[in-house]
Design brief:
The chain is an alpha+beta fold. It has 5 helices and 3 strands; from the N terminus they run αβααββαα. A 3-stranded antiparallel sheet has the order 1-3-2, sandwiched between helices.
Amino acid sequence: MDPHWARLVDFARSHDGVITWAEAAAVGIPPQRLQGWHRGGRLRRPAPQVYVVAGVPDTWHQRVRVATGSGRPGRHTAPLPPCGASKVSTVARSRW
């Protein structure tokens, strides 16, 4: 097995099948290899600078990794407060 592919698979196993350009570089995989595997169908590219191993089942964990790993500075997820919870209770009290 190609040693670069083996490194990618080892990494992807514990990351829901997802790897970014930066993560690939950190484990010694050149960007040209990622592009070649993408062209060859071994990887999908659901977002800029983010790859998913083809055939890995889609999960919400994977979708979060893809959404937060696109390589753009400042991209992250944060918990959201209940949608308008305080406004709803205020409106409800004022009607009654």
